[in-house]
Known about the structure:
- By secondary structure, the chain is α+β, with helices and mostly antiparallel strands.
- It is 51% helix and 19% strand.
- It has 21 helices and 17 strands.
- It has helices spanning 2-10, 18-46, 55-73, 77-82, 87-96, 109-126, 130-151, 172-214, 242-248, 252-255, 260-268, 274-280, 318-340, 369-372, 384-400, 439-488, 494-525, 538-552, 577-593, 625-628, 652-662, and strands spanning 218-226, 232-240, 286-291, 296-306, 309-316, 343-349, 354-358, 404-412, 415-427, 430-437, 534-537, 558-564, 572-575, 598-607, 611-618, 668-671, 677-684.
- The strands form four sheets. A five-stranded antiparallel beta sheet has the order 2-1-5-4-3, sandwiched between helices. A five-stranded antiparallel beta sheet has the order 7-6-10-9-8, with helices on both faces. A five-stranded mixed beta sheet has the order 12-14-15-17-16, with helices on one face.
- Helix 16 (439-488) packs antiparallel against helix 17 and helix 19 (577-593) packs antiparallel against helix 21 (652-662).
Amino acid sequence: MLKAIYHFITKPYLLESGxxxxxxxxxxxxxxxxxxxxxxxLMLSLAGFHVNECIPGNVSLLAISLVGLYCLRNGRPDxxxxxxxxxxxxxxxxYISTQYATHPVKSxxxxxxxxxxxxxxxxxxxxxxxxxxxxxxFSVSLLTIGYHLHQAERLGDALSLYWPTPELILNPxxxxxxxxxxxxxxxxxxxxxxxxxxxxxxxxxxQINKTVKSFQQGVLLxxxxxxxxxxxxxxxxxxxxxxxxxMFRVNSRELHQADADVVFPxxxxxxxxWNNYYLHTKNRHRTELYVEHLEKWFEVFSLQPAPNQIxxxxxxxxxxxxxxxxxxxxxxxxxxxxxxxxxxxxxIDKDGIYVDFVIKESELIQINADDIVGNSIFEVGFxxxxxxxxxxxxxxxxxxxxxxxIEYALEVKKGTAMFEMRIARLDDHSVISIARDITKRKxxxxxxxxxxxxxxxxxxxxxxxxxxxxxxxxxxxxxxxxFSKMVGSPDFDLEEKDRFIDIIISNGKLLMEMINDMIxxxxxxxNQVRVKEGFCKVNDxxxxxxxxxxxxxxxxxxxxxxxxxxxNPKFGVTTDKYLLEEILxxxxxxxxxxxxxxxxxxxxxxxxKDQLMFFVTDTGIGIDVEQIKRIFERxxxxxxxxxxxxxxxxxxxxxxxxxxxxxxxxxxVNSGIDxxxxxxxxxxxxxxxxxxxxxx
Length: 696
């Protein structure tokens, strides 16, 4: 509230000096107190509460206070200060007038004197032309005291230094003269000092103005305008230098004493929120702005030379900004080039502290700058042994100017990655470390080694296959040729010739099977096998296979058993009948080959609602657990020796597995040595029919 009153009092005068504002405020207070005192005394006198009332004196004091306040509110503080010259009028009514005086005229001379003395102090404090006004007031005071002495018939006492009164006071003329001399000397000294200070300020201002004008940077000085509550409401431009005018292409006439809201839209356009920056931002020491219509960057430093003033210095940093942008662009370009290289670059000082790094973004490894830069190689995840080794390589690279190479493994999100680190000297205090991800290379080397082993093994298998196939082909061919000659010989009867013909036919079938397997393998290799789906009556297929293999097993002590889960003749599924039949034949051939006695069972059953599972079980020699994983490899046979007990090319199961995968299944095996074997696979039950079983 006091601030609001202070602002209300000083606002009409447009004062810049705080001292002037305080003088005006003090003058208001004194005149207002005089007005209040006069009103109170007048009211008490009119009400009859005073015995020694002096209504004319109260009225004259009230009039002086009103005149002074009127002068103040009209912006004339000097006129208000001169109202002190009317003080003798009040003194006249209170102490000199024989009609209205409140005390005897002869004894009230000291009251007149002491009432006049404060006037000197009043003029010293509130008057601008102190010496002149003090002289006038001194003259008026002497006349007032002389007139009082005349009225009191005591002019003779004017020549005495001390008056013969009970108070033993100093001569009033002497007292007034001393008060005048004291205040006059103070006023003169104050004026001299003030003049000297003004001269210094003027010289300083001239030097500052000269210096500011010579600045290459733009300088802007503004006045902050405030409301009654001292809240900032606007800006007024006080001064600018030629550099500022040249920067923003304006002249001094447009800027001098102009409102910022009028000039700044032309100067800054929409590139700068000046009201927010200057009036509402507390920390406004430095900012950067881009003036679009000038295509320039400026760095602005602001300071507060006076309580309600703001000075801003504008540095044209367009060149520096373009240079920085160019450097950033170059850095970005080189960084992109570095990131295009599938390596990670680190700068490490001689103490093992990471200084900088460049990494290409990848899913394999991600590095946070805060986790690397500023940290030591002993703190980023290496083992202690590896950290010491890297540190030694750094020292060797710096001291010997050599390139050191280290391979290491690093745990990443997706597993373990292999890296090759090359460390080279960058300068006397640092090295550059290039870390390359060699995981793929290492994996390729491992796979190449595995492929080499497989190739060697495949070569052995092919060698065994070629040796075996020559034997497999030669055996039936010899039988065919030999028995064909014997059929044409007259030395054998018809019964023997019929038996020879059966042998020729069986060996011909065996030879045909070998040729078919090789043709099927070639089609698989060339990706020419296509699935031709159609509706297949499963029971008809299984019965046909049963009849065929029952006839072939008449000469062996083996029982063939068919186990169909659904006896409905219409039961069937949409699939490739040829491929399904070939798979079952291969499995049945395999069971017949390796079973000397016992039972072979085959058939099908539903596996859930959407899978049809086929199986072939036997009581043959069985398969070793280690061999089960490899029986579906091409050319692989349980006995790969050139002299073997069991015939065959080693292609049947590989072909059957490929066909089953084409149909959407996979052959699986359960077996053990001398425990027989069980082969089974499932195909999708698509468009199945006849699922209702026949109940007997």
